[in-house]
Amino acid sequence: MYEIIVLKKAKSQLSKLPEEIRNRIGFAIEKIKLRPFSFVKRLVASQYFRLRVGDYRLILDIRQSKLVIMVIEVGHRRNVYKR
User: Which long-range contacts (CB under 8 A, 24 or more apart) does 22-31 make?
Assistant: First the structure.
Protein backbone atom coordinates (compact mmCIF):
# COMPACT_ATOMS: atom_id res chain seq x y z
CA MET A 1 0.00 0.00 0.00
CA TYR A 2 1.27 3.45 -0.93
CA GLU A 3 1.73 6.24 1.60
CA ILE A 4 0.04 9.55 0.73
CA ILE A 5 1.90 12.82 1.35
CA VAL A 6 0.03 16.09 0.74
CA LEU A 7 2.38 19.03 0.24
CA LYS A 8 1.75 22.39 1.92
CA LYS A 9 0.61 24.08 -1.32
CA ALA A 10 -1.92 21.30 -2.00
CA LYS A 11 -3.26 21.49 1.58
CA SER A 12 -3.83 25.20 1.13
CA GLN A 13 -5.63 24.64 -2.17
CA LEU A 14 -7.78 21.89 -0.65
CA SER A 15 -8.82 24.07 2.28
CA LYS A 16 -10.28 26.65 -0.14
CA LEU A 17 -12.57 24.12 -1.84
CA PRO A 18 -16.18 23.39 -0.77
CA GLU A 19 -16.59 20.55 1.73
CA GLU A 20 -18.39 18.29 -0.76
CA ILE A 21 -15.47 18.51 -3.21
CA ARG A 22 -12.94 17.91 -0.41
CA ASN A 23 -14.81 14.75 0.59
CA ARG A 24 -14.82 13.46 -3.00
CA ILE A 25 -11.09 14.17 -3.33
CA GLY A 26 -10.40 12.43 -0.01
CA PHE A 27 -12.30 9.35 -1.16
CA ALA A 28 -10.37 9.34 -4.47
CA ILE A 29 -7.03 9.58 -2.65
CA GLU A 30 -7.96 6.63 -0.44
CA LYS A 31 -8.96 4.64 -3.52
CA ILE A 32 -5.57 5.06 -5.25
CA LYS A 33 -3.54 3.80 -2.28
CA LEU A 34 -3.61 0.18 -3.45
CA ARG A 35 -3.27 0.44 -7.25
CA PRO A 36 -2.57 4.04 -8.27
CA PHE A 37 -1.74 3.29 -11.91
CA SER A 38 -5.30 2.04 -12.49
CA PHE A 39 -6.68 5.53 -11.82
CA VAL A 40 -4.04 8.05 -12.95
CA LYS A 41 -2.67 9.22 -16.27
CA ARG A 42 0.82 10.51 -16.97
CA LEU A 43 1.04 14.16 -17.96
CA VAL A 44 2.56 14.77 -21.39
CA ALA A 45 6.29 15.61 -21.27
CA SER A 46 6.34 15.46 -17.47
CA GLN A 47 7.27 13.11 -14.65
CA TYR A 48 3.96 13.82 -12.91
CA PHE A 49 0.56 12.17 -13.07
CA ARG A 50 -2.98 13.49 -12.85
CA LEU A 51 -5.99 12.14 -11.02
CA ARG A 52 -9.41 13.26 -12.21
CA VAL A 53 -12.11 13.93 -9.61
CA GLY A 54 -15.06 15.49 -11.43
CA ASP A 55 -13.98 18.92 -12.70
CA TYR A 56 -10.98 18.95 -10.35
CA ARG A 57 -7.51 17.53 -10.94
CA LEU A 58 -4.79 16.40 -8.58
CA ILE A 59 -1.21 16.58 -9.80
CA LEU A 60 0.73 13.67 -8.29
CA ASP A 61 4.29 12.45 -8.10
CA ILE A 62 4.42 8.68 -7.63
CA ARG A 63 7.63 7.13 -6.29
CA GLN A 64 7.36 3.38 -6.86
CA SER A 65 10.63 2.52 -5.14
CA LYS A 66 9.45 4.07 -1.86
CA LEU A 67 5.70 3.39 -2.29
CA VAL A 68 4.90 7.09 -1.89
CA ILE A 69 2.31 9.25 -3.64
CA MET A 70 2.87 13.00 -3.24
CA VAL A 71 -0.05 15.33 -3.93
CA ILE A 72 1.62 18.39 -5.44
CA GLU A 73 -1.29 20.52 -6.60
CA VAL A 74 -5.10 20.52 -6.51
CA GLY A 75 -7.36 22.70 -8.62
CA HIS A 76 -10.09 23.11 -11.19
CA ARG A 77 -9.23 21.61 -14.57
CA ARG A 78 -9.16 25.01 -16.30
CA ASN A 79 -6.47 26.35 -13.93
CA VAL A 80 -4.40 23.45 -12.65
CA TYR A 81 -2.29 22.84 -15.76
CA LYS A 82 -1.18 26.49 -16.17
CA ARG A 83 2.26 27.37 -14.86
Answer: 24/53, 24/54, 24/56, 25/53, 25/56, 25/58, 25/74, 28/53, 28/58, 29/4, 29/58, 29/71
